[in-house]
Automatic annotation (TrEMBL):
Protein's name according to its UniProt entry: VOC family protein
Classification lineage: Bacteria, Bacillati, Actinomycetota, Actinomycetes, Streptosporangiales
Domain VOC intervals: 7-125
Amino acid sequence: MSKLFSGTKAFSGFSVNDLAAAKAFYGDTLGLEVSESHGLLTLHIAGGTNILIYPKPDHVPATFTILNFPVENIDKAVDELTARGVRFQRYDNLKTDEKGIFRGGGPLIAWFTDPAGNVLSVLQD
């Protein structure tokens, strides 16, 4: 079998229902580098990774975590994001603390959503 994609730099993408709100959230609230071209957004993630964000009028939020942001100190990250207006998710099947951090085994992790309802997380690296 040929190695058709072995040299291809793949990238991921996801939809939102409001490109302007996504650009403000990812650029201003999360502090990521965001560019806009041809009616699409590109997130420029550390390490040279790009993620495409595209508008979709009938957008349905992902029911799983689409982006995970590793951080050195989850308490500090959650506090800073909370100060920027981010609200952390609470799930019935996962016990989180008062900040919204799951400390029940595995990595320390906290989930939040973008303006389109897509699930994101910060997790302690």
